[in-house]
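User: Predict structure, ligand UGB.
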Amino acid sequence: KENAALLDDQDRALVSQLLDLDQAHLFERWPEPGTDDEGKRRMLAQLRMLDASYHGGIAAYVRNARKLLQESRDGINPFEGYVPSVPTGATLDFASPEFMEMEGEGLREAGHAAFVLVAGGLGERLGYSGIKVALPCESATCTPFLGLYIASILALQARAGNGRRLPLAIMTSDDTHGRTLELLRKNNYFGMDEDQITLLKQEKVACLIDNAAHLALEPTDRFSVQTKPHGHGDVHMLLAKSGLAAQWLQSGLKWVCFFQDTNALVFRALLAALGVSARNDFDMNSLAVPRKAREAIGAITRLTRPDGSAPLTINVEYNQLDPLLRSTISKEGDVNDASGYSPFPGNINQLVLKLSSYVPQLAATGGVISEFVNPKYKDSTKTAFKSSTRLECMMQDYPKALPSSAKVGFTTIKQVWASYSPVKNSPADAVAKFKEGNPTHSATTGELDIYKANCLSLAEVAGVALPCPLQTDIFNGISTEVYPRVVLSPAFCPSLSELKAKVAPGSVTLAPDSVLVLDGPDISVRGPLVVRGALVVRAVAGAKVDLGPLTVDNAGWIWEPLEEGEAASEEDRIRGFTVIRKASMELVYDKPGSYIVPAPMQQLSTGETVSVPIAELETGS
Ligand code: UGB
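Assistant: Predicted complex:
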């Protein structure tokens, strides 16, 4: 009351609402007027922001929190009364005729797609001080994840050839917004038009200190409410609120593809998923991977009432799946079937949604996604928390808001290496996972799996014989096979069918520790191309490069394991290696034209065909 003069009408209404919600403790430590007024104003501004950014305001947040905290305390199973079964969807073998067919269909649909990257997470688990999308996805070209994603979208845009610019929305948060913008600006938006990209910033939500949903104050600042991220589910609310999804639909787009911040392989499988979505007219389609029973990855599950009504196809987190199965259809719980895998596909949170059903759904719900709370209790009485908690939401829970007539499916690519290797875990956590025999989802494997996927793709569609045995190494305690360091840029081949068309069968031979970078939309390999060492070919659009018989033999680049405690950049340290560039052949074509490599001597002078004397471009260090 003494501080009432600091409040305008809006503040007054909000504060009185908070008092009604039993939140008086927020203001109890306010000193008398004239002392720390700046702090009080700061807190009022924060409360206004928290009120405005949550659907229904702070009052709705506290009410929802009380309900969910009560359910959590009562041990209510959110899937109570449901019977699980395996949903319908497509299971594809990478590079199989069916995969290629779906990819072809997806490529046609990609010209009508918008893309959404959720990048609000700071990635505490990884222990990297920067934003994750700025991390180089591999160390051969050092392309940041964000650069890779934008290049992938631009390559699809170029192939679609319908003159349409494919929009990209990036969800950021206070933790990532400024640095994401800076990364984009510094790199000239990685070649995309600035107005093709929309940044949507999610706000955090207030932390809660107890089952009565009292809001938490920062321990070191009595004028600041403690906040934490609300989860990637916010993306739907932001797409609704900004009107962006509606705008996309209006402009004639058909699909919206969601993806996470550090899976460099996502675009390898996304086209096939788009094809499956179009073929089945799916309202929602989740990319999935085979999942080992009890593996710590959500399972895509069909849930119905015992009489088969109210079907819902949804991600069930792994810790909820086992008890659900035990209490319904399987006494053994979450077990592998004859294939050696769980019959339930593993969710990797790469989603394709149909805009014509998504937009009306957003309009009806405001994009609000069902929430959950995960308090860590001090003891079994569940009366006190170890630390503050908050409500969270996940983007894959979108189907909970859909009518039961909606078509929700999945697309599993049987080969995990072809579609999923995110960078999520710190070296310490990764090595622990490695010792348990689980995928490490580390910066080490995130990079090495790119080379593996490229090598195996070349083997699948271009009959390239891979070195045998492969090199093996130990990086950050993770012992692994290392494939030749092949980087095929999105501009070179945004689809597997294009790779097949560009690389002649059996035309490439790679030494175990070789490096091959192909970056340019008009490069093709006739061969025989033999790489012992490092070869980098870069060509701008319109530079038609025909790689003919060529043997590259140089000292190459070495992926050198780091010793424990050895000084290194943070990026190298989380990978466990550093790259020593000894020598490479670099062929750079920065002007349109036709280039034959190696250049026939008679074409060296002038004319339409330009040639490059390779020996002069050999570099060494
Ligand atoms: N993210 C945001 O943009 N905002 C947020 O508030 C939080 C995250 P995590 P998570 O790939 O195996 C997901 O933390 O949530 C972004 C699925 O829920 O990497 O633990 C963040 O920047 C799970 O079902 O993953 O688990 C990142 O891009 C499973 O599929 C993305 O959201 C799991 O991923 C994911 O955030 C997986």
